[in-house]
Amino acid sequence: MSVKSWMPVVWTSLAAIIGAIGCGGGAQAPGAARLSEYGDNHAALGATCQSSWSFGNPLPTGNALNAVVAPAPGSLVAVGDLGTILRSDDGGKTWTTQCSGTTDDLEAVSFVDTQTGWAVGGYYVLETFQTTQTVLHTIDGGDTWTRQHTGTNHVLYAVSFLDAMTGWAQGVGSLVLHTIDGGATWAPYPAGGGYGIFFLDATTGWLTGDGISHTTDGGATWTRQSTPVGDLHAVSFADPNTGIAVGGYHFYHFGEHESQVIIRTTDGGATWTLQRVAIRQLRGISPVDPNTWVAVGRGGTILRTTDVGDTWTPIDSGTTDSLFGLSLFDGSTAIAVGAAGKILSTDDGGNTWNPKSSGSTNPLSSVTFVDSGNGWAVGAGGAILRTTDGGGSWNAQFSRTNAYLLGVSFADADTGIAVGYAGTTVRTDDGGATWNPHLVESTYYLTAVAMADRDLAIAVGNNVILRTADGGVTWLADTRWSNISLTGIAWVDFNIAIAVGRDGAALQSVVLQTVDGGAEWTQQRLDYGIYAVSFTDANVGIAVGGTVTWRTTDGGRTWARQPSRFDGTAYGVSLADADHGWAVGSRTYCIHRAGCQVEGLIYSTVNGGATWVRQPNPTRNTLSAVTFAPGNGFIAVGDSGTILRTDIGGEAAR
Length: 654
Prior knowledge:
The chain contains no helices and 58 strands. With 654 residues, the chain is mostly beta strands. The protein folds into two domains: 60-355, YVTN repeat-like/Quinoprotein amine dehydrogenase (Methylamine Dehydrogenase, Chain H, 7 Propeller); 372-646, YVTN repeat-like/Quinoprotein amine dehydrogenase (Methylamine Dehydrogenase, Chain H, 7 Propeller). The chain has a four-stranded antiparallel beta sheet, with no helix packed on it. A four-stranded antiparallel beta sheet has the order 2-3-4-5, with no helix packed on it. It has a four-stranded antiparallel beta sheet with strand order 6-7-8-9, with no helix packed on it. The two termini are 30 Å apart.
């Protein structure tokens, strides 16, 4: 796991804020279509490339891309988290996902021609302090990748091959590896470890890390060069004399700390001078010509110089997503890649940049479908996305609000309501072509909504239940629920609804039931917190929260805790029928000063929640909600704009 993957204990996603989860799977309309004939095809999932879940947003991937290389003009290969490998043969216009066969993060890639290449990486498990290492090799342009072994287990952050036989890789722990047989065997070299490798030719190269090391004999010997700073992530040279290295630190210790450094040499590294110190850490550097250089880094930073680094001009990247990799090809054409699958391109030497990836990367909180094709997802910054093809593609809609939207529900393909922060509600009667915002009360924190029909809807939140009988034009507030944070709502039929949440003072779950369309409510108390609820018919429902599952077979009058426990926190749940369903969430492990690792989780059940089986997940992003798209499988949403889709209703609980 690289430093960029270590996350602060400052939750930016909805699901990570306990008590503020938009549970799309628990915001359910009565009489919603269900799977009429459930198949028994429960083939176990294989490797990551065989996962039954695929990205619908962002595209081509929502995983972080850490490096990109151009084997030939117009040919590109990008690698990233969870074994992601993408290839483009048209300059980045379209991308094909390749099967890596690993779930380790891939940090660097090197090709010597369009067919022969290597990708390296690994993963650092914060909880156990154990590391894994991955070296992959292809001789067919990435159609197949085979694993190579170095005899070490340190994460590798850089790789560079001079030809099909000779290559270098380096990583943490002062690890530098060398091969002269195409990676069949690797030998360690005492050159110091770090993050970057650059070879100008077969004999002249540099390594970056806490400093810079230099070779003039193809790596037989390395000499440490004197630099004014450390924490250097990348280096590049325009000629044997002129080079620029970039980097900076980034860590968490009672908050986030970050720096940016740029150093330059005009004598091959005999001397390095500090050119710039700023805030955003830089991760990539490349010369366009001897005078013009481009650097990329965290927070969407792009810097450009036309005087070999004497002055640097910030360039508008159009994104705040961090950029981790940069590759130049075709003279003035370059590709940058980064967080949440971000891909940018320039054809004017880095002066302007255009997106090659598509889709919103705002965290998404809730999702709903009214049939096999029409669905909506909502999230941060007033984000509303719509699909008409069952989740294959998504288009942004204008919500007319910047509020964080936490819940969404539709009565039909035209009529819908979304709710969120500061008492915000927005409604549409044309499928979201236009949305009309309405502020109920700024102190209300609304987390979920469910429509019974075009007129009747219930929204819930912290200490409040709202009811509308006119499609969200006006709302009546029930504020009797002091200290109760309600996070899920589902209609059982057109009169009966169930709301779930927790009492923060009593540290108990709360289940509320109405039998008169929301006019009055009765209350039950259960152990543990509940975040989401889903019903498959008038009797059978499941509620999840934390590590536990509750099941009802009498429409919510009584609940029984199920024996199976999640190994993380479940935030969303959705049923296809009385037996089959999915739950989603995340697992977080934090260490003081080191930060946090977050792991998105997907579970399936084939016995009504009695047992849950964790399934392969194509992303580490936290997943906040899941819903059933009748006749078209399930859709899950979460951090970084993640929308995942599967056409499999459930997996064997085995």
